[in-house]
Write a structure and sequence with these properties.
This protein is an all-alpha fold. Helix content is about 75%, strand content about 0%. The radius of gyration is 19 Å and the shape is elongated. The termini are far apart.
Length: about 180
């Protein structure tokens, strides 16, 4: 704050304030600081844009989330997290084909996240590509054992490929998780 008081046109100071606020989970004020830093033409290796993409995602402003993920990708085409953020926002915008492209890119770049794998599994599931859907849901289960939606999706995939008995087990696991 002192740096901003001394020089309100210091984009780096606004960026650093944004980082501090972001780390305190004060996303509303972090967004304001990051946007001010951007307005002052401070651009930091994509990190600020990644964080803005995340903030806009939790605000359900997927258009802006995609916009800022794209800005991060422009600065670093190997930014796996930015591809994940873009894929996540596209997924919840129900633009599944575009989402799949970004999520696969994030996966290829080594981003490990159970949401990434469960979203890819769901996309392949609705495309009736049960083999890939099954592969991705298994990856999600390796990373997360306490999310009932993963078990529901696994059950749906198993039922779709004729493994009803296994599917029932996964439905039961999902219900058990929801009860706890």
């Amino acid at each position: 704050n002192k740096a901003i008081i001394n020089n309100s046109k210091d984009g780096f100071a606004h960026y650093r304030k944004g980082i501090a606020l972001y780390n305190m989970k004060d996303y509303i004020n972090a967004k304001k600081s990051f946007l001010q830093a951007e307005k002052l033409n401070y651009i930091h290796s994509g990190n600020m844009f990644e964080k803005l993409s995340f903030i806009f995602t939790i605000e359900n402003n997927y258009k802006q989330a995609i916009n800022y993920a794209n800005k991060a990708i422009i600065l670093n085409s190997q930014n796996a997290y930015a591809y994940y953020q873009k894929g996540y926002a596209l997924f919840y915008s129900q633009k599944f084909l575009k989402s799949k492209e970004s999520l696969i890119k994030a996966d290829k770049l080594g981003y490990l996240n159970y949401n990434l794998f469960s979203m890819l599994s769901y996309i392949f599931y609705i495309e009736n590509n049960f083999k890939k859907a099954h592969s991705y849901i298994n990856k999600a289960l390796l990373l997360c054992k306490d999310d009932s939606t993963i078990y529901y999706l696994k059950a749906g995939i198993l039922a779709s490929i004729g493994k009803e008995k296994e599917a029932v087990n996964y439905y039961q696991k999902a219900l058990t998780l929801e009860e706890n």
